[in-house]
Each structure stands twice: as structure tokens, then as C-alpha cells.
Amino acid sequence: MARIEGVNPEEVEDNYTRKVLDAQAKAWGAPLLNHLVYARRPSIFRGARAMWTGLATSGLIDEKLQALVNRRVASLNGCEF
């Protein structure tokens, strides 16, 4: 469980945020918990999404390595992944 409570996906008003959370729910069964926390502030949400989009589209870091880094950071933060 996150130390900071995330938003209720059903109550998100920002259209971009709602689309991302809906896509995550479709892909993984539920929105990612960290994105629910980011969604408390749309500007932070957009910044985090821009970072991940930039990494994915840069071609500089292999997708498998991105996944490993993501899981390692989650582990260091005590997040269940």
C-alpha cells in the first residue's frame, strides 16, 4: 500500500490522466498505484508520463533494461511490484 493515498480513478477529471489510467486498467487489470499517486497533481502526472515516454522512444535504453530498472527502483522504495 502506498504511503500517500492515490486518487479514485472514477473521480479523475483531467481527460489525459483518465485516458492513461483507463489504458493501464485495460492492459493490467487496474491502474498502476504510482500513477494514482501522481494523478493527485496533473502537472506531476504529465511530467512522470513524459519521462517514461521519453525513455521509451529514445531508443537509448532497451525495453528489458527499462523494466528491470523500474522494478529495482520499486524494490528500493519498498513497493510491491
UniProtKB/TrEMBL annotation:
Taxonomic lineage from the root: Bacteria, Bacillati, Chloroflexota, Ktedonobacteria, Ktedonobacterales
Gene3D superfamilies: AhpD-like (1.20.1290.10)
Protein name per its UniProtKB record: Carboxymuconolactone decarboxylase-like domain-containing protein
Species name: Ktedonosporobacter rubrisoli
Cross-referenced InterPro entries: AhpD-like
Superkingdom of origin: Bacteria
